[in-house]
Amino acid sequence: MKLQKQWKTTGPWTMLSLGKGYYEFSFASENDLRSVWAFGTVSLKPSVLRLFERTKDFNLHNQPNTHAHVWVRLMELPQEYWIERTIREIASVVGTSLLIDNVTSKCIFGRNARVLVDMNFSKKIFHELLVEREGFSFCVEVAYEWLLVFCSHCQNLSHNVATCCWLYPRNEGKVSKENSIKGKKQIPTSKQDWVPI
Hints:
Among the domains are: 2-53, no CATH class; 67-150. It contains 5 helices and 11 strands. The protein has helices at residues 2-6, 30-39, 84-91, 102-105, 177-184, and strands at 13-19, 22-27, 42-43, 48-49, 67-75, 96-100, 113-120, 128-133, 136-144, 150-151, 156-157. The strands form 4 sheets. It has a 5-stranded antiparallel sheet. Strands 1-2 form a two-stranded antiparallel sheet.
């Protein structure tokens, strides 16, 4: 329903779930496809839909996963910048601004503005932003409430380069009989005397 409100197509279109958050869209005409493609990334509040052209032999398990939603705090942001549009513009340096939390939008506690952003972990992560207006500029510290681990080799979240299974595949060969017997032997240890602390 959210997409139907944003995409003004002349004919019908269908959406097929492929699993793992991937969908395939089919359009009645080439013009509808072009107009939706030109629309680009769609904000579905609080999430986003990123469009890309499906490649031949598409396998959703081999797709890079570089994006995640992260709450960020713009530390010590002056009150005159606590306008929704301004906060979204500042947060857009970090990622696509999705949602401003209730406390921030109602200016209940005016120290740190809190914004949910869709971050691309393959790009630079900023810990300080330069905010400029005519004749004046200042720096704002960015605090991330939760950062995922990202592997720059295979372009996926949840592990880093040191534990990447593409760089360091597991050796899952057969365990020799000698090694399996060694693992079952008990190793004698000396008795520890209990000493009070």
